[in-house]
């Protein structure tokens, strides 16, 4: 059974950057206003995510890393959010099958926190009282220690750190009131440090630089055909002056970071057809639509697919909705 669990876990957590993404999302879901990420050896040796969110209650710790825990946790009341983006409730569980997970957490009003380590979905020890500041720190060590081939591939391939930085950067543009930072273990300087701001453009400037911001146009679309059916999109997209070799696509649907290759390709195509200089676009788009129109692939290995007409017709009830995928960091 443990081999089966490990294989399944290795599909949910495909690489260090996918673990980082899941951990940062959890921190943001916990209402954190500061999230700090530290990474060693591209995340294979250590991933540490610290937040100042609401913490995890001691009585929830025993089941924290069981699969599909989500709805069992008392701290989680917002089932609507879970439903809207196909929450799986198995990210943390999966990490315990392919790495060593240690959680330190304190909830409001407690005099001390608790620390506990997990292996293969279960606690290795009873939660130990410990000193803790506000929030939660999750440490994942030796990711894929029990998956020799995966570890080798990741060691041979490019270090996952740039992908981690990329995820944090994209989160920072959307969650402008969360101070996100990311650094290599032992480094004084953070490679991303978003700060908090009240303006989207400031957030983009903090993360991607002033020169990007100079060449952006604001886009806003909203379509309100019925009271209960609202399609809304806003964001920024680069203008004709922008020059870049690589597309930056930051897409959030109902506040979840997703990938949508067909939309990315379509935009690249339009850019290459219209613009005099061969530049790739910078796009930040935040789309809000009724959850029933969004179908996030539940199985993480399944490559995304998009019913492209769905995006434009998302305000009609009869279309079958937009399929997007959770970014795997590939
Ligand atoms: P999911 O996020 O899909 O519910 P996870 O395995 O990622 O599943 O996390 C399980 C649960 O653990 C979350 O629903 C949340 O209640 C709790 N949790 C995880 N990380 C944190 C955190 N940083 N702060 C507070 N609670 C957390
Ligand atoms: Mg999660």
Outline the structure in words:
- The protein is of the alpha+beta class and 330 residues long.
- The protein folds into 2 domains: 2-193, Heat Shock Protein 90; 210-324, 2-Layer Sandwich (Ribosomal Protein S5, domain 2).
- Helix content is 29%, strand content 27%.
- It has helices spanning 2-12, 16-29, 79-84, 91-98, 148-156, 161-174, 200-208, 210-214, 261-274, 308-312, and strands at 34-40, 46-51, 100-106, 113-119, 122-123, 128-130, 135-141, 179-184, 192-193, 216-226, 229-238, 248-253, 256-257, 282-288, 294-296, 322-324.
- The strands form 3 sheets. Strands 1, 2, 3, 4, 5, 6, 7, 8 and 9 form a 9-stranded mixed β-sheet that branches. A 5-stranded mixed β-sheet has the order 10-11-14-12-13.
- The longest helix is centred in the first third of the chain and has 14 residues, at 16-29.
- The chain is globular, with a radius of gyration of 20 Å.
- The model is unreliable at 71-86 and 298-322 (pLDDT under 50).
- The protein binds adenosine-5'-diphosphate and magnesium ion (MG).
- Residues 22, 25-26, 91 line the site of magnesium ion.
- Adenosine-5'-diphosphate binds at residues 22, 26-27, 30, 51, 53-56, 64, 69-70, 73, 75-76, 87-93, 136.
What's the quick description here?
With 330 residues, the protein is α+β, with helices and mostly antiparallel strands. It has ten helices and 16 strands.
